[in-house]
Amino acid sequence: MGIGRERRRFPGENPGKMFEVAVRDNLREQLHHSEASREWLVGRGASTKYFAQYVHLRAIEELMEKSPNRAELRATIGTDYMVTPDVTVSIPDTTGLIGNAPWLHAAISCKWTIRSDRVQNIRHEFNGLIRHRRGRQPHLITVTAEPLPSRIVAIARGTGELDAVYHVAYDALDQAVKSVGNDKQLADWEECVNLKRVLPYEQLAETLIRW
Fold this sequence. Notes:
Elements: H1 15-34, E1 41-44, H2 55-66, H3 70-77, E2 87-91, E3 103-111, H4 119-132, E4 139-144, H5 149-156, E5 164-167, H6 170-180, H7 183-195, E6 198-200, H8 204-210
Parallel strand pairs: 3-4, 4-5, 5-6
Antiparallel strand pairs: 1-2, 2-3
Helix pairs in contact: 1-8, 2-3, 5-7
Pfam families: NgoMIV_restric
Organism: Streptomyces plumbiresistens
Protein name: Restriction endonuclease
């Protein structure tokens, strides 16, 4: 993905943001190269209110801003339904029926590492995308480089908040756990693999093209 060992990290640099940029650029290149007949829009930091399934949320926000009681409305309705995925993959709407807003094809949460206490944030955001959509559900995906199986399994477990976790060093981690991992690490990794919720990152573009 273009992040070499020789690259030094400078003060103020955020590896998480660099990871998001790398995933965005890599996916954009792979999708355009593998399926050029389809127009792919791959971005970073775009609110879901600008996509076809969620444009009604933008209308709600605009109504609240125009209301003289907007503070009261915000307190009553809340704003946690507004989600800004790290990376988005969308497809243009050719019908024009919804104001030309593109369809959100995938919402991707990029986690260079996974803090156990932040796992619920991913679930909360994805649950919001499931509940508030109008139209088909986008693919809900986490991409990570987390090296500890115990942290990966914390997000891989579950039944509906996300489709899969894609690991950028899947083969290396698989070999490392099997070679030097303790019993707990091996059990956690086997659970991840057997659930089929943790997959090699190399399969992500192909999956997005096929579905």
